[in-house]
Design a protein that fits this description.
- With about 450 residues, the protein is of the alpha+beta class.
- Helices cover about 30% and strands about 25% of the residues.
- The strands form four sheets. An eight-stranded antiparallel β-sheet has the order 13-14-15-16-17-18-19-20. The protein has a six-stranded mixed β-sheet with strand order 2-3-4-7-8-12, with helices on both faces.
Length: about 450
């Protein structure tokens, strides 16, 4: 399958081949600057995604070189940043860049290594990626039968990462909603983007067209569905994004938003849509040259320069809480069982109330501390209130309203009762799926 916005983003953590500081203090010669600009200019004409723009970029760089614009930059890093700024001043493409990426030089002359075969390269890369679980950072079950997937990059070698992807997605087979967290996702392989998207489609679906500058051709692009027993087509989808969600991560969010009505929550993403490849120019510099651009079937454009629009805007750090609330409210509307509706309402109340500004000071919390009947205890530690009971769920108590707290993310509600002198005299604990409360008086 070739998804419309298949993206092979340059991911810094995998492409740096030397310590960051190596060579950045050395003075660049005029010769190396000229060679870098000349080779980069040639690549832009031959490979840049927008054929009519390549010559303009080449002309800009050559004019700047002849005018002595780059003479003031003596370090490789400063030079690369200056060239990148110049390129993007004419063509604001977030992938287009000259990067300072020095090669490690051998201390003694050695026989040049034989080029790796594609199979050897895949095996070598996957040996490293295995230690990062191929980008699958976390899978969780959240209250309300909501699944949560944190995906930090899209692995390039499906023959190695496919079993991990399948296992992760199988975890959500019984979920009613799924939150995909791309807030820290740095992009990666379009093939993996298509593979993940395929879990949410029943039929082969046209996503748009993609122009390939290297072949000077335009192709239709599709999402190919997973086999029926793997599909998650009836699940409510929520995508979390941030300002650093980029490239392939944006591709997944964009397609699921416009083709599967997924809600995008958080911050507008980085806005880097045009995929390409890294080319080494010399021992100091590499260039990322985008060589493809796409047009989505729904919007007639892509997200380059604009990012993926959010449906609910909020700070990235609060996006998960907001997404959970949205999912729970939708599930409560669907629920027909009164007890299920009540349980979900408890979860909603908990998430709406747990904010730093609603926390009580230690002085106010201290009045609840003590031993209660049935082996129940309330303790105060580091300004936080904790509940413990025999054969009961325990943990930190979160303030909801006057004398009402919750724990276990809303599964348990603890309500305190006062006497006529405003002293706390008992507590009642109620699980979200039961009608009766367990009452315990406070020991004197």
């Amino acid at each position: 399958m070739k998804p419309v916005f298949s993206c092979l983003i340059w991911m810094i953590t995998f492409l740096i081949t030397a310590p960051y500081g190596l060579g950045q203090n050395q003075s660049l010669s005029a010769e190396i600057k000229k060679q870098t600009i000349d080779d980069l200019s040639t690549l832009l004409i031959e490979r840049y995604a927008y054929k009519e723009v390549g010559p303009k970029l080449q002309q800009l760089l050559q004019q700047n070189l002849k005018a002595g614009r780059y003479e003031a930059y003596h370090s490789p890093l400063e030079f690369s940043l200056a060239v990148t700024r110049d390129l993007r001043s004419l063509q604001p493409d977030r992938h287009l860049a000259l990067n300072f990426n020095p090669q490690i030089q051998a201390t003694k002359p050695t026989t040049p290594p034989q080029p790796l075969t594609p199979e050897e390269r895949a095996k070598q890369a996957s040996a490293f990626n295995r230690q990062m679980n191929y980008g699958f950072k976390s899978v969780q079950f959240l209250n309300g039968n909501i699944g949560y997937l944190k995906l930090d990059y899209f692995d390039s070698y499906l023959e190695y990462s496919r079993p991990v992807a399948d296992a992760a997605m199988a975890f959500f087979k019984n979920s009613d909603a799924l939150i995909i967290d791309l807030r820290e996702n740095g992009g990666g392989s379009g093939e993996m983007v298509g593979y993940i998207a395929g879990f949410f489609f029943k039929d082969r679906t046209l996503t748009g067209t993609s122009y390939n500058r290297l072949t000077d051709s335009t192709e239709e692009s599709f999402v190919t569905p997973q086999p029926a027993d793997k599909q998650l087509t009836n699940i409510d989808l929520y995508i979390l994004t941030s300002k650093v969600t980029v490239s392939a991560a944006e591709a997944l969010a964009y397609n699921l938003k416009y083709l599967k009505q997924a809600e995008v929550i958080g911050e507008t993403s980085a806005g880097a849509a045009n995929p390409g490849r890294v080319t080494r120019l010399n021992h100091l510099f590499t260039a990322f040259i985008p060589n493809r651009h796409g047009m989505h079937i729904v919007t007639g454009k892509n997200w380059e320069g604009t990012g993926v629009p959010v449906d609910i805007a909020c700070p990235a750090e609060d996006a998960l809480r907001i997404a959970r609330l949205e999912a729970l409210k939708k599930l409560r509307q669907k629920a027909t069982d009164p007890l299920q509706q009540k349980k979900i309402s408890h979860y909603i109340t908990y998430l709406e109330k747990i904010k730093p500004e609603t926390e009580l000071p230690a002085k106010a919390l201290r009045q609840y501390v003590g031993e209660y009947q049935g082996g129940r205890t309330i303790t105060l530690k580091d300004g936080k209130l904790y509940y413990a009971g025999s054969a009961e769920a325990g943990g930190q108590l979160y303030f909801i309203s006057t004398d009402v707290f919750m724990l276990s993310e809303g599964d348990v509600t603890i309500t305190f009762k006062r006497d006529t002198q405003n002293r706390v005299i008992e507590l009642s604990s109620r699980w979200s799926l039961t009608g009766a409360a367990a009452v315990a008086g406070k020991a004197k």
